[in-house]
């Protein structure tokens, strides 16, 4: 995915990035093609309700943190699917704004 690679490149340099992700898994919170601002995140400060870019099973997801249990984050989409638990260290960035 082009937008994921663009986001990862900027975030790895410590920059805030803007991308236009596509897909429907976050509809209601992020619509396909909306402009999303993602900032580098201190994973220790990520909490339930945050939307994060997270490394997941060989890829990356822009998903919602549903629950936090110590060093583990329960990741899911905004339409009811739960993906599973990911370590805080898998967080690449946090969504700070969504605009048209």
From TrEMBL:
InterPro entries membership: LexA/Signal_pep-like_sf
Top-level taxon of origin: Bacteria
Gene3D superfamilies, per database record: Umud Fragment, subunit A
UniProt xrefs under SUPFAM superfamilies: LexA/Signal peptidase
Protein name as it appears in the record: Peptidase S24/S26A/S26B/S26C domain-containing protein
Organism of derivation: Gemmata algarum
Organism ancestry: Bacteria, Pseudomonadati, Planctomycetota, Planctomycetia, Gemmatales
């Amino acid at each position: 995915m082009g937008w994921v690679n663009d986001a990862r490149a900027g975030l790895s340099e410590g920059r805030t990035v803007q991308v236009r992700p596509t897909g429907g898994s976050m509809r209601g919170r992020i619509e396909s093609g909306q402009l999303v601002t993602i900032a580098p995140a201190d994973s220790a400060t990520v909490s339930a309700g945050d939307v994060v870019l997270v490394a997941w099973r060989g890829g990356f997801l822009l998903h919602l943190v549903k629950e936090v249990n110590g060093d583990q984050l329960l990741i899911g989409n905004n339409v009811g699917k739960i993906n599973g638990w990911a370590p805080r260290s898998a967080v690449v960035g946090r969504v700070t704004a969504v605009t048209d």
